[in-house]
Every structure is written in structure tokens, then in C-alpha cells.
Write a structure and sequence with these properties.
Length: about 90
């Protein structure tokens, strides 16, 4: 694991904790900084980080508080308070 990946993981944890404590502006700054580190070092963001951040407003999503999660026809739809939607496929277990 490179230094950049460690930094991204740490910023993800900080953003999660900041949202939990009610500091949305601080969480947004952590998300922006993590994306900037990933861009500069040409490394990808972790899947959990991508799925719990809004691409439009850079807020860390917390379902039930600032995000709505719905299941529709084989995919998950996550809607942020800003109106942006993310869709991810899922496979049901049978």
C-alpha cells in the first residue's frame, strides 16, 4: 500500500467520523482532499469511498440522513440531498 492510498483511507475514515458528529463542511473538505490526492498520484479510490460520496457536491453520504437508498430492478439507486443520483448493480442471492 502506497503512502497516497494510506492517506486516502485515513481521509475516508475522517470524513465518516465528521459526518457522524455533524460536521458536514469538514467531511466535504476531507472528501475533496482525498479525491485530489487520488488524482495527483493516479490511484483509484476505494469502492466504499466511491459509493458513499456524492460526485456532484462532494458530501459524504449517510443513508437516512442526507441520502436516500432504493432498490429498483437489479440496481441500487442512491439519491443525495442535492438531487444527484448514483446507480450500482446488485445480484440477488437465490
Amino acid at each position: 500500500m502506497t503512502i497516497a492510498e494510506e492517506r486516502i483511507e485515513r481521509l475516508c475514515a475522517l470524513a465518516k467520523r465528521a459526518v457522524r458528529e455533524g460536521h458536514d463542511d469538514r467531511a466535504r473538505a476531507y472528501v475533496q482532499r482525498a479525491r485530489r490526492v487520488a488524482e495527483r498520484n493516479r490511484c483509484g479510490l476505494p469502492r466504499t469511498f466511491k459509493r458513499f460520496t456524492c460526485d456532484a457536491c462532494d458530501v459524504y453520504l449517510r443513508p437516512g440522513r442526507n441520502a436516500r437508498v432504493r432498490l429498483q430492478d437489479g440496481h441500487v439507486v442512491i439519491t443525495c440531498d442535492c438531487g444527484a443520483q448514483s446507480r450500482y448493480p446488485y445480484h440477488s442471492r437465490q
